[in-house]
Amino acid sequence: MKENKTLNQKLAELEKSTEWFYSEEFNLDEAVKKYKEAIKLATDLKKDLDELKNEVEVLSVDFSK
Questions:
Q1: Does 47 score more than 70 pLDDT?
Q2: Could you tell me if 45 and 11 are in contact, meaning their C-beta atoms sit under 8 angstroms apart?
Q3: How far is Cα 4 from Cα 35, in angstroms, rounded to an integer?
Q4: Taking the model in full, what pTM does it have?
Q5: 44: closest CA among 15, 16, 12, 11?
């Protein structure tokens, strides 16, 4: 089952993941796995933001009529 997270939840998760790389918990064994997870999350966020941008543009066109 796919979990539907909000943009804020995804951003918070990405921030937490990024902070891990600068923490004392960082280790090379987990770095590749966490990096791949962060890239996927960033890609998902970009997709969500692109969709949101398209919605805003459509609404802007509707209101300008």
A1: yes
A2: yes
A3: 21
A4: 0.72
A5: 11
Domain range annotation of the chain: 7-63
b/e string for 28-52 if b means 16 or more Cβ within 10 A? eeeeeeeeeebeebeeebeeeeeee
Which one-letter amino acid corresponds to residue 23?
S
Alpha helices by DSSP H, 1-65: 7-21, 28-63
pLDDT band at 58 (very low <50, low <70, confident <90, very high): confident
Cα separation, 3 vs 58, in Å, equals: 27
Rounded distance between C-alpha atoms, residue 5 and residue 8, angstroms: 8
